[in-house]
Amino acid sequence: MFVDEAKIHVRAGDGGAGVASFRRLRGKPRGKPEGGSGGRGGDVIVRADPAVATLLDYKRRPHRKAGSGTHGSGDLRHGKRGDDLVLAVPVGTVIRDEQGTMLADLARPGQEITLLDGGKGGKGNAALVGPDRVAPTFAEQGEYGAEAWVTLELKLVADAAIIGLPNAGKSTLISRVSAARPKIADYPFTTLEPNLGVVALGGREFVVADIPGLIEGAAEGKGLGHAFLRHAERARALLILADPSPLQEETVVAQVRILRDELRRHSPALAARPTVVAVSKGDLPGADEAAATLRERLDERVLLFSAVTGAGVDTLMHALADAVDLAERDAPEREGFILHRPVPPGFAVAREGEVWVVSGLAAERAVGLDDLTAPEAADFAARRLARAGVDDALRAAGAQPGDDVRIGDVVFEFHDEPGAGGGE
Fold it and tell me: In terms of domains, do 398 and 259 share one?
């Protein structure tokens, strides 16, 4: 089954917790701190892989999680870093967040983006030793890994796209000129998924995509083809097929108008690409006259061919190869796109009822200790919050001494002590 869109939930790995541990030594009643730090959680990475052809696996299993870091232990043994989650997707996959913002367009093999960073591992008490903390009795907790819903959207990478109304002969043509074997039948919408074929023409070679049949209004969501218009977006050149069969309700002139209008509505840049216009089914009675009428009305070159007999197919493929070559000369190689998101602010202050809520990684890190009931740990967290600017932000927002402040699961009273802080 071909799947070209999937919404998935990804989560980075959690960081391992640090540990408070001591080695008992003569002359040092509290001992020497030797607690190891926790390992960092694994990242979530999406990578374009030519060996992957569809997003079906992500449709079936939409929830994915990176490995978590392990906890530290005594004797300065640090936790192991969690395994990264590497999601292999087809070349040409676009990644969007829940707001629809494009995060990456992986248009080249091997191109990748780190979607989510793993949670930071907590420091053991050996790493928290400082001038005013000779033997800390506490350690940091590991951070939780970030999580998010993202949409994967595949846009096939092809040199040329075959565009036509249902039953225009697109699948028959691609099966004639390549090794692709799409389903072919005498009823509309036989092709329910795009097909790719490689055309070898002497010393020339290019990839052709058979786009499912379009109908008028496809750009607004009508018919089956609208979901596949995006697969034509990467094509350097277009082949527009007109069907002279009496079964078609529209004349060949009307067909070309409809197709060009739908392409223009979907993407003006797509409609402006080098285009070859051809009349298919040249073996049918009246096909010659239809091609002549189309040439006269369009005042441009119109080719006639029959994928059944092979007449005119070579000429058509050479013309399409010329259009691809023209597009390659006029347009630079597509490099893809990766959004470099700005670093979010360290914290934010908001009022919820009678409680001040401080959210953000910097604030959560400050209080992420294993035992805040210990006076030494509480003082350490207070100094961190002051250094991060949380006290000043609460004061500026209107917090008064004695007000409750919540950071994550921790709730404490605000004490207005300007100038508090100091080193860790």
Answer: no
One DSSP character per residue, 226-243 reads: GGGGGGGTT-SEEEEEE-
Kindly state whether residue 192 falls inside one of the protein's structural domains.
yes
For residue range 80-97, list pLDDT tens digits in order.
Answer: 999 999 999 988 899 999
- Say whether both 164 and 200 belong to one domain: yes
Check whether residue 148 and residue 277 sit in a common domain.
no
227 pLDDT band (50/70/90 cuts)?
low
Domain boundary (108, 131, 154) is at: 154
Last residue of a domain, one of 88, 122, 154: 154
Low-confidence winner among 87-96, 183-192, 252-261 (lowest mean pLDDT): 183-192
Identify any residues that bridge with 276 across adjacent strands, giving them in sequence order.
239
Element (H, E) at 316: helix 313-330
Q: Backbone phi, then psi, for 147, in 5-degree steps?
A: -140, 155
Same domain assignment for residues 131 and 240 = no
Q: Is residue 237 within 8 Å of 282, Cβ to Cβ? A: no
Vertex 301, ends 299 and 304: CA angle to 5°? Answer: 125
Checking if the pLDDT of 33 tops 70, the result is yes
The whole-angstrom separation of Cα 196 and Cα 235 is 12
- pLDDT tens column, 360-396: 888 998 999 988 888 899 999 999 999 989 999 999 9
Contact 166, 185 (CB under 8 A): no
Q: Which two tokens stand for residue 356?
A: 């001040």
Q: Which domain holds residue 89?
A: 5-154
Contact of 115 with 58, CB cutoff 8 Å:
no
Residues 142 and 171 in one domain: no
Which amino acid is located at 195 in the chain?
N
Q: Which of 180, 275, 179, 193 is nearest to 227 (CA)?
A: 193
Is 371 among the domain residues?
yes
Q: Which residues contact 92 (CB under 8 A, 6 or more apart)?
A: 48, 106, 107, 154, 155, 156, 157, 234
pLDDT single digits (tens) 314-345: 999 999 999 998 887 766 556 667 777 666 66
45 and 108: one domain? Answer: yes
| Shared-domain flag, residues 30 and 146 | yes
Q: What whole-number distance in Å separates Cα of residue 372 and Cα of residue 421?
A: 17
Predicted TM-score of the model (pTM): 0.72
